[in-house]
User: Which sequence fits this backbone?
């Protein structure tokens, strides 16, 4: 059932590499100055680390590979979605950028469109009433 | 050799889990905690697969898959809540 030789070695090496990426992502969560930088370090590096670790474990036991690839594909598809939703929620929640930041394109776009920055997600009363009746 | 590499991988993943847990406990506001929770679930899924491998039961892979699905739904629900309330 378990693989031997070069395949097992490659699997263990992939697992080790992926866990190093997982550790670096968590280190970014620990060290970065504001929530957007933490999201950048945390979600990209950990997605790659998660996929490498799972594929390495799958190579160690090839019989489990189809189910493990299912998990990998699911994480690959859903994690960018959840981090995108979190970033938008943090921006509309009013979380400030770190003091060294030089560009906030979403705030600039909101100002250009005449929306008060940080309030674009709030439903206004008129549309709420329409939703209730509809 | 392979055993040593797997133990080192477990050490790295555990250290990452501790760092993310620190951020989740100390994070200055709610979105920081949600990001740390997201990272913790991403580290936990391979650890669950590792547990399945150590115990030799393929059923535990389903636990890891369902945990990944529920963590995704939980993070999206949290983001929606921060954005406009429930």
Assistant:
């Amino acid at each position: 059932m378990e693989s031997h030789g070069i395949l097992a070695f490659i699997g263990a090496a992939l697992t080790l590499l992926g866990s190093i990426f997982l550790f670096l992502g968590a280190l970014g969560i620990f060290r970065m100055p504001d929530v957007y930088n933490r999201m950048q370090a945390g979600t990209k590096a950990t997605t790659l680390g998660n996929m490498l670790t799972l594929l390495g474990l799958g190579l160690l036991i090839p019989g489990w590979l189809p189910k493990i690839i299912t998990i990998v594909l699911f994480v690959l598809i859903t994690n960018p979605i959840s981090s995108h939703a979190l970033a938008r929620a943090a921006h509309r929640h009013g979380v400030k950028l770190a003091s060294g930041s030089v560009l906030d394109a979403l705030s600039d776009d909101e100002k250009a469109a005449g929306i008060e920055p940080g309030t674009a997600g709030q439903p206004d009363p008129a549309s709420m009433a329409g939703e209730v009746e509809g | 050799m392979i055993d040593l590499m797997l133990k080192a991988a477990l050490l790295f993943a555990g250290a990452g889990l501790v760092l993310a847990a620190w951020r989740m406990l100390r994070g200055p506001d709610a979105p920081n905690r949600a990001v740390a929770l997201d990272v913790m679930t991403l580290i936990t899924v391979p650890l669950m697969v590792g547990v399945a491998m150590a115990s030799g039961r393929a059923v535990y892979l389903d636990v890891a898959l369902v945990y990944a699905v529920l963590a995704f739904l939980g993070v999206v629900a949290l983001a929606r809540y921060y954005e406009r309330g429930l």
Notes: The helical segments of chain B are 2-26, 30-55, 59-84. Residues 2-84 of chain B form one domain. Chain B touches chain A through 51 residues (CB under 8 Å).
